[in-house]
Write a structure and sequence with these properties.
Blueprint (H helix, E strand, L loop, with lengths): L6 E6 L2 E6 L10 H15 L6 E6 L3 E3 L4 H4 L19 H7 L3 E6 L2 E3 H9 L2 E5 L3 E3 L13 H9 L1 H10 L3 E2 H6 L5 E3 L4 H13 L3 H14 L4 H16 L2 H12 L8
Parallel strand pairs: 2-3, 3-5, 4-6, 5-7, 6-8, 7-10
Antiparallel strand pairs: 1-2, 8-9
Helix pairs in contact: 1-3, 3-4, 4-5, 5-6, 9-10
């Protein structure tokens, strides 16, 4: 486990877990947390052994955005609150583009910049009791963490504007209905259900998993014909791999495949 002050980060058998760790403040963001999260996600993006990264929160919260009490306090630690650089605001982009599959395990309040981080992930899974909100206009800011880019791609342009402009709280069930959250689970089994999803993904072929994510990223910036040409070449390459041949044999032999990546 890495030595950070506001987050926990560890890697085990191809799964990275990044836990926002200011539970006494529901994991409200500080400059230190943003810097440390950027550092951990950057490390994960460069680690070829990682198949899945899970972003979650300690205690009762996921992340309600900036810790406004912290930022209005007269007793802040100047070292921890050193100004952020532009690169530190690219966490959501890294979550979106890194080779590993990224999952926001939303265990509690999720708003503002925390909502932006969650929207950067490939999947969002939520506990049933969770409330979410874009929140930015309620504190007189236009927002950060890339929400106007990611949110319309998840829920559509009109719904994204509604969520951002009206700033109303909505439930995990509402989020699931609009396609923002993939699945919701009862609070008492939430961690176990997330772990099961993560385990299922981590057992897939590393090469195929990363190529599938890359295909979605590439498709965002290509026209259909160009994408099909690119996909076909990559599909032919993967189909010749040892992982694919092992998957074929395992299917025929009715057993779990054993992938070397």
């Amino acid at each position: 486990m890495s030595d950070y002050g506001t987050i926990l980060y560890d890697v085990d058998h191809g799964v990275a877990k990044l836990t926002l760790n200011r539970p006494d403040r529901l994991n409200g963001m500080t400059n230190q947390m943003v810097r440390e999260t950027h550092d951990a996600v950057s490390r994960a993006a460069q680690d070829d052994s990682i198949r899945v990264l899970v972003l979650t929160g300690a205690g009762r919260g996921f992340c309600p955005g900036a810790d406004l009490g912290h930022y209005t306090s007269q007793d802040r630690d100047p070292a921890a609150d050193a100004p952020l650089e532009v690169e530190h605001f690219r966490v959501a982009g890294l979550l979106h583009s890194m080779p590993a599959i990224t999952i926001a395990a939303i265990n509690g309040a999720c708003a503002g910049a925390g909502f932006g981080w969650a929207c950067g992930c490939d999947l969002r899974l939520a506990a049933r009791s969770v409330n979410l909100s874009t929140a930015f206009l309620n504190v007189a800011v236009a927002g950060d963490m890339g929400l106007p880019w990611s949110l319309p791609r998840l829920v559509g342009a009109s719904k994204a504007r509604e969520l951002s402009l009206l700033c109303e709280k909505f439930s995990a069930a509402d989020a699931e209905r609009m396609g923002l959250v993939a699945r919701t689970y009862d609070d008492d089994v939430f961690r176990e259900e997330v772990a099961a999803i993560v385990s299922r993904l981590a057992r897939k072929s590393p090469a195929a998993l990363k190529s599938m994510k890359a295909h979605y990223l590439e498709a965002e910036s290509m026209d259909f014909d160009a994408y099909l040409d690119h996909e076909t070449v990559d599909h032919q390459r993967i189909s010749k791999s040892a992982d694919t041949q092992e998957a074929f044999r395992a299917f025929v032999e009715k057993r779990e495949p054993r992938f070397d990546g």
